[in-house]
Amino acid sequence: MRFFASLDDRVVGAPSILAADFACLADEVRRTRDGGAELVHFDVMDNHFVPNLSAGPVVAASLARATDLPIEVHLQVERPESLVPAFADAGVAAVCVHPEITQHLNRTLEEIKSRGLEAGCALSPATTPSVLKYALPYLDYVNVMSVNPGFGGQAFIPETAEKVRRVREMSGLPVMVDGGITEKTAPLMVRAGARVLVAGSAVFRGDRATAMRGIIEAGRRAVE
Ligand code: DX5
Ligand code: ZN
Questions:
Q1: What tens digit of pLDDT does each residue of 84-121 get?
Q2: Residues lining ligand 1, CB < 6 A?
Q3: Beta-carbon neighbour count of residue 8 at 10 Å?
Q4: Residue 95: which H helix or E strand, with range?
């Protein structure tokens, strides 16, 4: 199943597992699935591109065996192209890379697609959407980051809503938003054109299913 191609303008929720309890990751994902999650957002950090370190292909492979939700990988690493084969083998559905750190962006996107995965670009808050212009034919989705990459639990940057609007207009592609997404900020981003709501700290505290459902419903109400 091609996740982004089959979205059909629906608003969907994706837990960012960075904020989950990694000692019981499969259970954590199951709880968000009970709350309507349709995709898992898997943050990969290398302590070089961003000052944090997270999980890699080994953890993604275990999780892919433990859930039937598609996994989308957000590469926040130097030399992202070198990790594409291992994540493809791990059984993930999609990979997004940052143009800010990817040499030969189109080649990397082609490599992702040649392995049968959907390909995306993630834009840090200060990155202009115009970097996407000549990469559009290779893209299946765009992640408009609404915090600076590196950590969960940061404050939402409101100016990024205007970028969502521009990216949606120039690309027509499904837009994901990532960072500081809550029941409060989700409607703003959905009205700007976002359809995939990634949320970490707002989901993995208290009851995960209730929190996930709350964010998805807040987003859906915004375009009813
Ligand atoms: C930040 C990551 C996000 C992060 C979001 O670099 O890309 O996916 O986990 O976390 P929250 O929802 O807590 O801002
Ligand atoms: Zn992310």
A1: 999 999 999 999 999 999 999 999 999 999 999 999 99
A2: 16, 18-19, 41, 43, 74, 76, 147, 149-150, 152-154, 178-181, 198-202
A3: 7
A4: strand 94-97
